[in-house]
UniProtKB/TrEMBL annotation:
This is proline dehydrogenase. Pfam families: Pro_dh (PF01619). It comes from Bacillus gobiensis. One of its GO terms (molecular function) is proline dehydrogenase activity. GO terms for biological process: L-proline catabolic process to L-glutamate. Keywords: FAD, Flavoprotein, Nucleotide-binding, Oxidoreductase, Proline metabolism.
Length: 304
């Protein structure tokens, strides 16, 4: 019961604009620096290089969401373009992940698509891939509709499907052939649209993983759950699914020994690396996901 209460508190905090604004003044404190790779492109590229040296692939995420100013959305677009250019300039192994609410989705749909096209054009020129992060349920259908529109011109873009949503299986079926990052989900959603019990979320997670793999589509399994990872290993072996059709993904700063172990076993392992000053919402959702993350954060705070 306590875990549920603390989860709701952190999810509420993640969406609180006043707290988010205050957090930008605090800097990367309260353990956040352990899971966020600094606030500049340079600091993020440095972390990517370090992880590449250990055999890990990466994806960079310039933090920020729910932008309601065209000026800020354009600034975010430019920053994402510069991130892709820096990845190419320094020759590091990293994709880019973006949130469309950071690029103006809540302001104007066409404006957001224009910004996405700028980013995808840069990715195309630099031979890179862009992952559109899935946000809360209210943006789910919009995200998938825009993805399909973008895919008419660009093949270097994919998205994320969250297994806690009731619609997840149907979405995976409709996105056959598209690279998907499959996750459990980190937003607070109502029982009308999302499973509320971990067992149900986990069962649906394995269901959509198997479904996408068997369709021959590229699948990114984003999980820190060792049980899920073991089941995936067993499933791909039993079904003769080649290792170049999937990858494991984990968040920067979490389960680093397991990340390295997967690399040593010959699996592709990608680390999701967030960076930037707008870190509070992301950090609160990580604390909400697992009670263990709270002690992890406090340890980071008091070790400084």
């Amino acid at each position: 019961m306590l875990d549920v209460v603390s989860k709701n508190v952190f999810l509420y905090a993640a969406q609180n604009k006043a707290l988010n604004k205050a957090a930008k003044k605090w800097g990367l404190k309260f353990g956040a620096s352990q899971v966020i790779a600094g606030d500049t492109i340079e600091s993020a590229i440095k972390k990517v290089h370090e992880l590449n040296e250990k055999g890990l692939s990466c994806t960079l995420d310039h933090l920020g969401e729910f932008v309601l100013s065209k000026r800020k959305a354009l600034e975010a677009t430019e920053y994402n373009v510069k991130t892709l250019e820096s990845i190419a300039e320094y020759g590091v192994n990293s994709n880019l992940s973006v949130k469309m609410t950071q690029l103006g989705l809540d302001i104007d749909r066409d404006f957001c698509i224009e910004n996405m096209c700028r980013i995808l054009e840069t990715a195309k020129k630099t031979n890179n891939f862009v992952r559109i992060d899935m946000e809360d349920y209210t943006h789910c259908q919009m995200t998938l509709d825009i993805l399909r529109e973008l895919r008419e011109t660009y093949d270097n873009v994919g998205t994320v499907i969250q297994s806690y949503l009731h619609r997840a299986e149907q979405d995976v079926r409709s996105l056959k052939g598209i690279s998907l990052r499959l996750v459990k989900g980190a937003y607070k959603e109502s029982p009308a649209v999302a499973y509320q019990v971990k067992k149900d979320v986990d069962e649906n997670y394995m269901n959509i993983i198997k479904l996408h793999l068997l369709s021959g589509s590229y699948t990114a399994i984003a999980s820190h759950d060792h049980t899920i990872i073991s089941k995936v290993k067993e499933f791909v072996k039993e079904n003769n699914i080649p290792r170049d059709q999937f990858e494991f993904q984990m968040l920067y700063g979490f389960r680093t020994k397991m990340q390295q172990s997967l690399v040593q076993e010959g699996y592709k392992m990608r680390v999701y690396i967030p960076f930037g000053s707008d870190w509070f919402g992301y950090f609160m959702r990580r604390l909400a996901e697992r009670p263990q993350n709270v002690s992890f954060a406090l340890k980071g705070l008091f070790s400084k």
